[in-house]
C-alpha cells in the first residue's frame, strides 16, 4: 500500500460566479496509496465532493497539481481508471438491473459474452445474484445502491470513487451496506475514496480519514486508522473506535476556527 495512486499537491479550485469568486478548495495536499480506503468528512460546502469530482475530471482545479495513476485526471478518465458511485443510484427505470450494469460495458465496446460474464461476477460481488432481471423500481433503496456499485465495478477499474452513496438510507440498511462494502473492499483490493457526513461511518470504513474545514475547503486533519482490518459492527463500542471518532470530531471543530 506504499504505491501512490492519487496525489494532490497544493490544489486550489475557485469557481467564478456572478456574485464573485467562490473558493471551493485551497491548498489541498494529499497522497492516497494503492488499496487504501480513504474517507472525506466535513461540513456541507467544505469541498469533499468537489475534491472527488476533481479526481474524476468532472471539475478542473485552478491551481496546484493532481495526478491519478501518474496521469492527469482527464487521461485517467479516458483510460477508465476509476468507477464513480453518486449519491443517488441513477439507474434507468426502463432497463433491468443487468441492463443498467451493462450500459458502460456496451459504451466501451465489450462483446456480449464478456458483458454477461462481468454482470454475473459483479452481481455476486454485491450480493444481488438472481436480481439481474428485475427493474430498479422492484428493488429497495439499499439494493439499488448495491446495483449502482456493481455498475461502477463492472469494467474492473482499480479506483472506486463514492459520493455519499448511503446518505439517504436508514441507519439499519446503512449499517448492513457498510459491512458489505468492507467485505467487497477486502475481496477486490480496490482503492476507495468515500465522501460522508457521518463520523461513525468514516471511522468504521476507513484506513485513512481526511477531515476538511468549511469553505474554502482545506484539510484540517488526516487520521491513519489504528483499527484492525476485520471490523464487526460491534467494534464501534470499543475504546479505540471512540478515540478515533473523538479525534475526527475535534478536527471538525478545529476546522471551524478558520476565518476567511
Question: What can you see in these coordinates?
Answer:
- It is built from eight helices and nine strands.
- The chain starts with a strand and ends in a 5-residue tail after the last helix.
- A six-stranded mixed sheet has the order 5-6-7-3-8-9, with helices on both faces.
- β1 (4-17) and β2 (20-33) form a beta hairpin.
- The protein has two domains: 4-81 and 159-255, 3-Layer(aba) Sandwich (Rossmann fold), CATH 3.40.50; 94-156, no CATH class.
- The model has no long low-confidence stretch (mean pLDDT 90).
- The chain has helices spanning 48-55, 73-78, 97-108, 112-125, 141-153, 171-188, 199-205, 239-255; strands spanning 4-17, 20-33, 37-41, 63-68, 82-85, 159-163, 191-196, 208-212, 219-224.
- The protein is an alpha/beta fold.
Named at the architecture level, the CATH assignment of the largest domain is: 3-Layer(aba) Sandwich
Helix/strand class: alpha/beta
- Count of the separate structural domains: 2
Which spans have pLDDT < 50 for at least 5 consecutive residues? none
DSSP strand tally: 9
- Helical fraction: 25-40%
SSE sequence, one letter per element: EEEHEHEHHHEHEHEEH
- Classified by CATH, the class of the largest domain is Alpha Beta
Amino acid at each position: 500500500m506504499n504505491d501512490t495512486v492519487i496525489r494532490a499537491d497544493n490544489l486550489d479550485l475557485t469557481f467564478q460566479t456572478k456574485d464573485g469568486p467562490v473558493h471551493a478548495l485551497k491548498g489541498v495536499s494529499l497522497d492516497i496509496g494503492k488499496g487504501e480506503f480513504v474517507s472525506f468528512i466535513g461540513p456541507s460546502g467544505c469541498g469533499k465532493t468537489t475534491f472527488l469530482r476533481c479526481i474524476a475530471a468532472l471539475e478542473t482545479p485552478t491551481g496546484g497539481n493532481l495526478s491519478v495513476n501518474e496521469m492527469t485526471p482527464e487521461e485517467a478518465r479516458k483510460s477508465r481508471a476509476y468507477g464513480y458511485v453518486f449519491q443517488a443510484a441513477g439507474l434507468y427505470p426502463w432497463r433491468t438491473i443487468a441492463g443498467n450494469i451493462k450500459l458502460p460495458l456496451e459504451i466501451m465496446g465489450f462483446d456480449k459474452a464478456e458483458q454477461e460474464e462481468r454482470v454475473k461476477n459483479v452481481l455476486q460481488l454485491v450480493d444481488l445474484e438472481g436480481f439481474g432481471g428485475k427493474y430498479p423500481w422492484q428493488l429497495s433503496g439499499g439494493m439499488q445502491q448495491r446495483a449502482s456499485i456493481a455498475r461502477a465495478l463492472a469494467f474492473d477499474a482499480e479506483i472506486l470513487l463514492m459520493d455519499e452513496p448511503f446518505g439517504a438510507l436508514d441507519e439499519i440498511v446503512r449499517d448492513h451496506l457498510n459491512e458489505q462494502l468492507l467485505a467487497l473492499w477486502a475481496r477486490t483490493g480496490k482503492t476507495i475514496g468515500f465522501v460522508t457526513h457521518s463520523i461513525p461511518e468514516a471511522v468504521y470504513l476507513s484506513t485513512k480519514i481526511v477531515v476538511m474545514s468549511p469553505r474554502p475547503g482545506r484539510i484540517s486533519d488526516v487520521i491513519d486508522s489504528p483499527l484492525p482490518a476485520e471490523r464487526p459492527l460491534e467494534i464501534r463500542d470499543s475504546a479505540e473506535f471512540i478515540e478515533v471518532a473523538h479525534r475526527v470530531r475535534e478536527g471538525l471543530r478545529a476546522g471551524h476556527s478558520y476565518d476567511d
